Structure formats: C-alpha cells, structure tokens
C-alpha cells in the first residue's frame, strides 16, 4: 500500500492506495504518528478512495489510531469509502466510531 500525506491547516490527510492489510502496518503507523505529532492538527482524514481491499488487521489499525488520536485531542475522519471497503466498514459499524464523509 502507498500512503500520500498532506497537511492543510488543522487537517492532516492520509490518502491510501492499494491493499490495506497486515503488511501495511509499519507504513500506516509511521504516517499517522507524524500527523499525531503535529500540534496544530485537530483532524486526521483517512482517504480510502484508492483502497481496493482491507482485512481485519486494517480494522485494528484504525481502532488503534482512533484511540491514540482521542488521547491527543484529535478527531479521525474516514472518507472516500466505496465498494467492498465501504461494506466491510459498515458491517463493522465503524460509522458509529468514526466521523465519515462522502
């Protein structure tokens, strides 16, 4: 999986591309830890537009990010959900745990 990070004011965006699975954990953690370290960031947006697959370890990574973000006063937003990825996140009720944008 490839991750493109951008910083825009108080929002850090992580655009994911490819398979979001266990093999992505180091890269994903490194990307979101940079966003967590930015004192001006209040929102971390995870863009799934380029993701064609995710597994249960990806769900765990998102939950860990949410926990760490909340402990630093930041909000995690999921966006670009479509197809199978959207179905998996819906079944897991992630819409109740995360803010979701179209």
Question: What is the compact description of this entry?
Answer:
Helix content is 37%, strand content 36%.
Explain the overall architecture.
Helix content is 37%, strand content 36%. The mean pLDDT is 96. It has a 5-stranded mixed sheet. It has one domain: STAS domain (Transcription Regulator spoIIAA, 2-Layer Sandwich), CATH 3.30.750. It is built from 3 helices and 5 strands.
Low-confidence stretches: none
What is the CATH third-level topology name? Transcription Regulator spoIIAA
Number of helical elements = 3
Q: Count of DSSP E strands?
A: 5
How many structurally independent domains? 1
Percent of residues in helices comes to 25-40%
What CATH architecture label applies?
Answer: 2-Layer Sandwich
Strand content: 35-45%
Kindly list the characteristics that best describe this protein.
alpha/beta; single chain; five-stranded mixed beta sheet; globular; Transcription Regulator spoIIAA; 102 residues; 37% helix; 5 strands
Which SSEs are present, and which pair or pack?
Layout: E1 2-8, E2 11-20, H1 25-37, E3 43-54, H2 56-71, E4 75-79, H3 83-91, E5 99-101
Parallel strand pairs: 2-3, 3-4, 4-5
Antiparallel strand pairs: 1-2
Helix pairs in contact: 1-2
